[in-house]
Amino acid sequence: MLKQRLLTALILIPLALYCVFGLPLFGFAVAITILMTAAAWEWSPLMGLKRQVSRILYTASVTALLSLLLWLVPVGEIWQQATLNPLFYYVTIIGCAWWVLATLLVIKYPASRRAWSRTRLIVGIFGYLMFIPAWVALLTIRSIDYGGDPSFGGFAVLFVLLLVWAADVGAYFAGVRYGRNKLMPAVSPGKTLEGLCGGITLAFVVMLVIAHWAKIPVGQLSGYFLAGLITVIASVFGDLNESMFKRCAGVKDSGSLLPGHGGILDRIDSLTAALPVFTLSYLWLLV
């Protein structure tokens, strides 16, 4: 399994870097629309949709909403003199509010299941609240100072990716080596408190290295580390959130497209939470 994960990562990482740094901003928006569309397709069975036409309609609705947002807010109007477009700003806030609620649902599981498992509509809305704010946040981060320095937003996206990857890798190896105490066994029996600590530790090391390399001003360090820490914790609950819905649906992986990793949704579940949380943290703590 580890070998498969590494081989798949060797393909995915260069592809992700090309999309972040090699595509123009509109091309990047199209690429992440395709990504979220694929994730929505994998989400549809988790909300109980079995028929092909139902899955297509739900997936198409996500794509349509993302396309509408791109039409309402062209890539050149996302930022206006260091101020985020109001529509993108409020969508990001809604996304963060959802993740506060999702965290409570995860903590209260399985009792919380009664609040949403009776109807597909609620889980479908949860999907919108995952994918649309994540798309908005990712495009927002990539477009930071795009007119002045087109690569700045790319490095900001890379920073979030590195935090999430570090948290995932640190949790995996610390959990395998030291894991004893279960984090939330009802949701994800394999995750441990030791793994969580290992993930946060490795992510903190990444933050230290980047702070030194990027020469973060001393006056911004507290906001920088706080934003990073909140983002890492959000990524953990993004992963747990998907695990909760997969457990209810009785599936191990959201798909099988990525050998060793499962589906697209299995790879971006942490990011769907980390992206809007980082974006709001950036706006409130670093701008």
Describe this structure in words.
A two-stranded antiparallel sheet has the order 1-2. A two-stranded antiparallel sheet has the order 3-4. It starts with a helix and ends with a helix. It is mainly alpha-helical. It is built from nine helices and four strands, in the order H-H-H-E-E-H-H-H-E-E-H-H-H.
Attribute tags:
287 residues, two-stranded antiparallel sheet, 9 helices, globular
**Oligomer, anyone?**
single chain
Number of domains: 1
Q: Strand-residue fraction?
A: under 5%
If you compute it from the alpha carbons, what radius of gyration comes out, rounded to the nearest whole angstrom?
18 Å
The structure class reads mainly alpha
**What's the number of extended β-strand segments?**
4
Mean pLDDT: 91
Number of helices: 9
- Pick out the low-confidence regions: none
Strand order of the largest sheet: 1-2
The main β sheet shows up as: 2 strands, antiparallel
Along the chain, the helix and strand elements come as HHHEEHHHEEHHH
User: How far is the N terminus from the C terminus?
Assistant: 42 Å
Shape: globular
Helix content: over 70%
